[in-house]
Amino acid sequence: MIGKPRRAIALGTSFGGMITGQLAGRGGRWLDGAVATCGLMGGGIDLHNYQLDGAHAIARLLLAGEQVKLVRFTDPAEAAATSNRMIAAVDQARTSPAGRARLALITALYQEPSWVPGQPKPAPGDIDAQAAGRYQNLRAILPFIVLGRYDMEQNAGGNPTWNKGVNYWRQLAESGRLAEVAHLYGIAGADLHADLDLLTRTANVTADPAALAWMLRTSTLTGRPDMPVLTLHTTDDGLVPAQHEEEYAEDVSDGGAAPLLRQAYTEHAGHCAFTTAELVTAVLTMEKRIETRRWAGLADPRRLQARAESLGLGPAAFVEFRPGEFLGDRPAPPRH
Q1: Four-point Cα dihedral 252, 256, 260, 261, nearest 10
Q2: Residue 223, helix vs strand vs coil
Q3: CA atoms of 316 and 322, how far apart (whole Å)
Q4: Distance spanning both ends of the chain, measured CA to CA
Q5: Contact 92, 62 (CB under 8 A)
Q6: How do residues 70-82 score in pLDDT, each as one tens digit?
Q7: What is the spatial distance between Cα 256 and Cα 245, in angstroms, rounded to a whole number?
Q8: Class of domain 9-43+221-319
Q9: What are the residue ranges spanned by the domains of the chain?
Q10: pTM, two decimal places
Q11: Residue 171 CA to chain centroid, in angstroms?
Q12: Which of 146, 220, 232, 267 ranks highest by number of CB atoms within 10 Å?
């Protein structure tokens, strides 16, 4: 080592954000603070759990009667085949009112936002524009997340996720989109009760114990940081929804470490779509927190915005925001 730094801050993005969250609970001897940006703060198991919920809904509602492999892929081609079938199914669903209603349910389970990168943000009351945006975001990420599941399973040595025992009535209610989905089902003359009952009744995927144990060791967060943590997320992240931050905040609160955590949001569409000014502001804010040993409003969105604007590094869009309920967290899996 050359020299000795006065302070050290962990900074990680996306999957690296989850690693940063892990370091925050293990690196107290070497680190002074942690900044996790657009991170998988719900952990790897919960990430793939809610994605399994969405895949299950596509298979049962849009590919009814067909055999669709959702887990335990043997090679990338098998995963790609599932992804291609899903994309074709969601494209076809957009052509009918019943299909669009089911897509609203599916995108609620995937926790997809309505704002699409490069497009205008849908107005709060424009249900059709919001539904269209969620479809576009889902379509864009499906190949990545299905092939990502194959890669994850190869590393874990099996499937670490499950939906057996999941109540899809509860999942939809907790998504915050029950009224919207019910409205679209009503317009289409489709039966939401029947679809949710079907999803609940046919949810039969169980986890492989060894793969689950591996993911618990490598891809989860304890929620017990021993240093200050600042998380940064865009409001409309289609790949890693901002709801991950809600889960992390809940875990940290349950672990008794809430005073160490602050969470900030920027009003952008896309995964990790931060500006230079926003990222530099996050690091400088953590540096100030380490120096003063207290938050004292440092992470207030107005303070963050003012600091970003003072840097002369371009635009910033810090905003007051509260994400919805995270859908990946669930009780311990049932045995085979």
Answers
A1: 20
A2: coil
A3: 18
A4: 50
A5: yes
A6: 999 999 999 999 9
A7: 17
A8: alpha beta
A9: 9-43+221-319, 44-215
A10: 0.95
A11: 15
A12: 232
